[in-house]
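Progress note, project year one: complex with magnesium ion.
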Amino acid sequence: MSRNAPAIDAQRLSLILNDLRLPAIKLIWPDFTTRADKEGWPGARLLAALAEHEIAERDRRRIERHLGEARLPPGKTLDSFAFDAVPMISRARVTALCSGDGWLEKGANLIFFGPPGGGKTHLAAAIGLALIENGWHVLFTRTSDLVQKLQVARRELALEAAIAKLDKYHLLILDDLAYVTKDQAETSVLFELISARYERRSTLITANQPFGEWNRVFPDPAMTLAAVDRLVHHATIFEMNVESYRRRSAIQRQSRAGRPPTFATIKSNEEMSRSDNRTCE
Ligand code: ADP
Ligand code: MG
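Model obtained:
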């Protein structure tokens, strides 16, 4: 610092930075200003460097908070997802979805169908993780757990508030829709949730059963129809009709070890259903 610069009351500056909620600047200003003095930075450069640092830290903290809130199953990432095991899903398509642009703003949905073990939960969680890293707010939940919570809220006459609280999530991942039990279906909380989010907030649903089987999940067929209608109005549907990934991996391990598979066979790509992924705009 030049000899005739006015002295700074560091303690007071700390308090002001606290008041202004600028914790990153509070932490780094002594280093940055020392360096700026030494290297002769213009004042504007110093101010910009401090501001950039604060905003980057703010983003980092927000992502960390969102990751903590999202309750994603651990270890399910796009890097660990073998796209060649699901030939009907293109990596490029999934990567595009992970930016969140163009669908999360308008509350469009994603629906993954397929038999157990095909990677629906893995892919859903991996997309959720990537979206959080791109700044979006996501919640992952088993559908039946959330239905249970919403039923409790309903009994306490607080269903509307509970659904409104979920509004802060740009994407709500409802894993395993088909596992909602009969007694849960008797109330219509899931329908109310879907209606409330319609065209405002996005939902990703995974299900072992096609729409035709969703009557179990809603109190009556008319409500099932209305729910499906709202969900698919703006939706991308992935049909993940592949054999269980775990079973296939086990078979591959066995055949590598020289033992023939005894309990299942690996289907060729041609044998696997190749239904095109549909987009309903
Ligand atoms: P689903 O939800 O369709 O029943 P999961 O996503 O739970 O299937 O997949 C079952 C297991 O297999 C998980 O441990 C998952 O990580 C793994 N798995 C499934 N598909 C893939 C894949 N394409 N690449 C890597 N791991 C996969
Ligand atoms: Mg699953």
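The pocket of magnesium ion (ligand 2) is lined by residues 120-121, 175-176, 206 (CB under 6 Å).
The CA atoms of residues 59 and 135 lie 8 Å apart.
No further modelling is planned for this target in the current period.
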